[in-house]
Amino acid sequence: MYSAQRISEDFIDMADFDPTHMARFANEQLATISEPHRRKILINFRDHALAEAMGDYDALMETCSKKRQRYEVYSDNDNEFTRNQPSSYEELVPHYRALIDANMYLIHGVPDKLIVGDDSLMTEMVQHMVVPGAIAKLAFGVEEADEQGVYLFTTRLAVIFIFDEDGLGCGEHAFGGTTSIDQMRLLAESEIPPQYFSGPRSVGEFFAANPDLDWPGE
């Protein structure tokens, strides 16, 4: 899949912010793929995206391979976060726990391209991410960020997701540029998604709220 027009990199209206957007999009794309293994890969990506959007740690880890893992961040930001990515399942366990605990899982991804292969999936997207100000300093190196604030961080990036022989995720390689305060907008408290304050929810709650949603398992 690719978009006929370039996806805007403008800040999203927070009234339209939906962390499940990427998972819903991936679910719709299943109708375009019939080959069983590629469907398995896309389903894993979809389920991974949904679990992350909900902050459902257990469901998130179920989509990850225990055989091997390799995460990489290729960007102009050289800091402890970009350099120290998981390289095994044992390292991935605390990695995702920390991301959820730090409130870094609320992401509205708008795909420009989505390509599903035999052992990898690539998406180019405009990512809108809710980021605590303290994390903007620590992980993104944006010194101007207000540590007490909450920001919307908008950027274009490409991510290659890697899969093992069973179709489980075994790595993510993200490619981006430099992060600056110009890509961040300080949110008013009324704009911050309620889930930022209420905390993680389960995937089961998503399906309970969407009982008529067609969500194929294979």
Structural class: alpha+beta
This entry's quaternary arrangement is single chain
Question: How large a portion of the residues is in β-strands, by DSSP E?
Answer: 15-25%
Instruction: Report the CATH architecture.
Output: Roll
Low-pLDDT runs of 5+ residues are none
Main β-sheet description:
6 strands, mixed
The top level CATH class name = Alpha Beta
- Which of globular, elongated, flat, extended, rod-shaped describes the shape? globular
From N to C, what is the helix and strand string? HHHEHHEEHEEEHH
On the 0-100 scale, what is the average pLDDT?
93
Number of helices: 8
Helical coverage, percent range: 25-40%
Radius of gyration: 17 Å
Number of strands: 6
End-to-end gap: 20 Å
Structure description:
With 218 residues, the protein is an alpha+beta fold. It has a single domain (14-191), classed as Roll (Nuclear Transport Factor 2, Chain: A), CATH 3.10.450.50. It is built from eight helices and six strands, in the order αααβααββαβββαα. Strands 1, 2, 3, 4, 5 and 6 form a six-stranded mixed beta sheet that branches. β4 (150-163) and β5 form a beta hairpin. α1 (21-29) runs antiparallel to α2. The radius of gyration is 17 Å and the shape is globular. It starts with 20 loop residues before the first helix and ends in a 9-residue tail after the last helix.
